[in-house]
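seq:
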Amino acid sequence: MDWKQKRGSQVFVIVLLILFPFLTPAVAQKGKGRVLKEYDTKIQSNRSQLDSIKTLIAKGRSKLRELEKKEGTSLSQLKQLESNIVAAEKYVDILTSQINSLSLRVDELSDSLAMEKKSLVYRQNKMKKRLENMYKMGNAGLLQIIMTSSSMSDMLHRVRYFQELSRYDQVLFHQIDSTKGVIEEHRDTLETRLAELSAAKEEKTHEQKLLMSERKSQQNMLQEIRSQREEYMAMVQELEAAQEKLAAIMKSLIGQRKEAESELQQGRQIAFEKRKGELPWPVIGDIVRGYGKIVHPVYKTVTTNTGVDIRADEGSAVRCVAPGKVAVIHWIRGLGKLIVIDHGGGYSTIYARMGTISVTQGQNVDFAAVLGTVGKGGHVGESRLHFEIRNLASPLDPRKWLE
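struct:
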């Protein structure tokens, strides 16, 4: 089960419990002795649900904070990627422009080199042809120049012309060859630079593709984070609504419990008062020390007993004489372990010199419920239970209330 299914299942169960909190039989239909217990069970159940909801809300909010942090980080990374992509695009554009310029320049140099080569070939051919003619004519050529000259100065002028023409051809040849070398060197340099720029462009273009791929992944991740954040936000809102609804139910249950407890207290008081003279004995035995003033047979000292002492075997079961609530479990010197049961309307019963105690403070008890057992023998050497009945802290004679 993934996190979405798990979250949906949890929210569904919680909402179901909130919308139908009384799927169990109504407490009003049960016996009054079980009313408060039923309310306590429901309140505890609702409290557990509230705690569960609070835990889920806390986890949801924590997850929201985590997702918001991730979203911020992802946005920053995406922004940086966008900046890097733009920078890469600009760099590629600059490289492309430089490559285009260099390509044009290389083409121009190639054209110039071709023209220089053509010119060099042309000069080479002319020199070659002239040298061939001169070689063929040999001395006859020189004789022809002398014979055809109109004068000595014309002859010298012609000879000088041929010499200058030959020297010019040589100089022009060397100039063309030198220019060709310079152009070739320049072109080679530009072609090397062009190769470097092309390699840089290819590398930057590849980097740009990687950045764009990373941007796509980052965008998908950001979309997933936002989708999760929306899911958790919806979950938290549902849980908060459920918490509010459950809190209202809890408040209603507590109010109903208070009313039921008040009714139960009144019912216990009425039941307690109506059973005066008919209350069951807390333990089977005989009264060995009665209620009221007691004169010591030897020392003639007078003491007051606010209850009765009932002789009973050690370990005998001590039972509650009427429905009530365990108000106090304590130990007092001279009385040992004792239990105080609140019967409502200010009425309470006290069970002292207990050996063991079987109930807990705050527990509701019914007629004849076992409270514990009689303890070991006291200072007179026999086991006995000290039992009292009080109304608003004033002691009453138990013999008038017990059957």
